[in-house]
Amino acid sequence: MFCPKCGGLLRPRGGELYCTCGYTNAGKVEIKEKFEKKRELEVIDPSKDDEHLPIDPKAECPKCKKYGARFYTVQTRASDEPETKFYKCLACLHNWRDYK
User: Fold this and answer.
1) How far is residue 98's CA from residue 66's CA, in Å, rounded to a whole number?
2) What are the CA-CA distances from residue 47 to residues 6, 71, 83 (Å)?
3) What is the arithmetic mean of pLDDT over 61-67?
4) Are strands 16-18 and 55-60 parallel, antiparallel or unpaired?
5) pLDDT for the residue numbered 44
6) Distance of alpha carbon 40 from alpha carbon 44, whole angstroms
7) Which class for 66: exposed (0-12), middle (13-18), buried (19 or more C-beta within 10 A)?
8) Catalytic residue among 40, 49, 51, 81
9) Of 30, 33, 36, 80, which residue is the catalytic one?
């Protein structure tokens, strides 16, 4: 609600609304908030089950030097930084991260 005198935002205080210009609403006011239940998200832990992860056939394993690895990304730094890409070799199951 907005103040009829100055157009400012009315704030709640002790069951009434007031404005910084001095206006007060003499009537009782009840403020309610309604929250909707969010749906549950399925969290997939790549360390436990990696069958769902995509395969990069051009990724070379630094340990066994073979090509082909599953990969996933994780936000390891601030939100304005790019995600970090992690790989898991299909041949030797070695894990490494992309430093590009």
Assistant:
1) 16
2) 59, 11, 17
3) 95
4) unpaired
5) 63
6) 13
7) middle
8) 81
9) 80
E-state strands within 10-54: 11-13, 16-18, 24-25
- Residue owning tokens 């609304």: 17
Q: What is the separation of C-alpha 10 from the centre of its chain, rounded to a whole number of angstroms?
A: 32
Is domain 38-100 classified as CATH 3.30.565.10? no
Q: How confident is the model at residue 65 (pLDDT cuts 50, 70, 90)?
A: very high
* Beta-carbon count within 10 A of 64 CB: 13
Q: Are 79 and 72 in contact (CB under 8 A)?
A: no
Of the candidates 14, 12, 96, the residue with the CA atom closest to the CA atom of residue 61 = 96
pLDDT at 55: 92
Q: Is the pLDDT of residue 80 over 60?
A: yes
Distance from C-alpha of 5 to C-alpha of 13, rounded to nearest angstrom: 18
Q: Is 81 known to be catalytic?
A: yes
